[in-house]
Structures
1.
Amino acid sequence: MIVIKSKNELQQTIQKWKKQNKSIGFVPTMGYLHEGHLTLIKNARKENDIVVLSIFVNPLQFGVNEDFGTYPRDLMRDLDLAKNVGVDVVFAPTTEEMYPNKPSVTVQVHSRIHVLCGKSREGHFDGVATILTKLFHLVQPNRAYFGMKDAQQVAVVEGLIDDFHFPIELVRVETVREEDGLAKSSRNVRLLPHEREEAKYLYASLLKAKQTIEKGERNPKVVTKHVRDFLTEHISGEIDYIELYSYPELEEVETVTGEVIIALAVKYSQARLIDNITIEVN
Ligand code: AMP
């Protein structure tokens, strides 16, 4: 496994593989790797000749009051984990390497961002789309792997790939969970013990919603109310949102039909957790 910090070196390395017609699978992350990230990498390993992992905490996607400074980082540990799952190249640039100057061009996302996390995290998805555009140009992957834990991000990246004609296949990877159902996240380390204990109810509430739909409920407001009632009964965290939309368009629906997403966000003292499930309803 090679660790690359410079854009030039990455480009030269990629060129070499492109000339040899190697397929490249790309897993972009912010590091502090856990089983969720490793699952993306393992999928990439199976489906490509070369696996490139990027580790970069992207300042552009954090709001002024968000946790850019305190986002958990541990590059040495990440490199060990990456090596064990067969990564070929880790691209771990500094902020100065990715943004040597104040950006003169950034990418602005217009759709799929006015709901869920996009509503309260202004500019977040512009930051995501901008860094991914830069990384896609450098890595030139055949396939890029994204986790459904961040389903809104997947929806936005689908738009980015389509609109900017990137010749990249987006591979959606199911959310990897702890044994009690909590979606794995780098931010889970910040939960206090009682918060960690009750955080299992987030996924439980989504499963309740699924059951409600399976029993025949088709009114989105009734479904989300069930989730809210269940969560209010079981958790002390502050519910930021519980919403149901069509997926991946993220548009309001009057009736639950087709592919839909039920997504929620809950604020704890030091961490904001998100989770979702998508359901196909005929
Ligand atoms: P992050 O480092 O949080 O930016 O995440 C990098 C990638 O890993 C994104 O595509 C995430 O959706 C994905 N990811 C994070 N957590 C999980 C999880 N629990 N299961 C599956 N994928 C995940």
2.
Amino acid sequence: MKKLLALLAFVSLALAQNKEMRLFIWSEYMDPAIIAAFEKQYGLKVRIELYESNEDMLAKLQAGGVSQYDVIVPSDFIIPSMVQLKLLQPLDKGKIPNLKNLDPKFANPPFDPGNKYSAAYQWGMSGIMYRKDKVKTPPDSWAVIFDPKQSGNYVLMDSIREMMGGALRYLGYSINTRDPKQVQAAGKLLLEAKKSKRAVGFEGGVGAKNRLVAGSATYAVVYNGDAIKAASENPNVAFVVPKEGAALFLDNMAIPAKAPNPDAAHKFINFILEPKIGAQLSNYNRYATPNKAALPFINKEDLKNPAIYPTGSVKAKLEFVLDLGKDARLYDEVWTQVKSR
Ligand code: N2P
């Protein structure tokens, strides 16, 4: 009898799991109406857990998350290490016909040739958010953070490559430099910025945005979409792409190697790649869509906004964060020093 009960419990758990899709995603990156529509269409219940950086996500996956989540949303540069660590499973492309909707610019990316493990979700950039009610002139440079002669409190971003990227661009270097001297110089600048009386701490992109909106800082290093969405709700805040340039990201949907419900994961990825769903996502998030078939449904004013779809001289200064292989260690070492001192 006991055995039978245990078996029943096991079977009902397995059945319940098949009705669930577990999404592990950056905070404030999903329209709840899209989740509701997906649940209704497929009779699945979506459970969501949130993270604030690629480093957070990777640590969770390595600590057992690899068998707990069905869909995750890693950025470009982290995908090759995740593949190497065997944390991802190849996509079954027969189950994702909507992959054809991706703009060729965002399909077959260098960090995942042939979209073997990932499909583009949204893209964007980091930059500076500021309080219009606390500055005399709108900022246009990383100097408001890295020049000690400037004034105004700031929140730094707790994410290695974006924050180091800002310091590197301010110094005139590439976000993807492999030159130890340049990485160390950026680390030194960042350490000084952290130690400054003007610094109010490190936060994830959303946390930094929230502290700025709450009025605890004049400037914050944030992601564009979060800031642009907040600015549409609060006239006192705005976002700027610093003139020196900043980090671009392409975030992607992927399936952990031991996902409990890969079938639901493929359905979800295909759903997000629907033209109208892709547009709904970007219109809600205020991040750019990598889905070409979604473009006709994107809000016109967002398509014209260079802080969402950069063009010309702005675009020329932005750099995609690349996987640096072994040289990523240079960044990790410098970052650890910045955070621990
Ligand atoms: C949305 C998170 C932005 C994604 N809050 C940064 N890769």
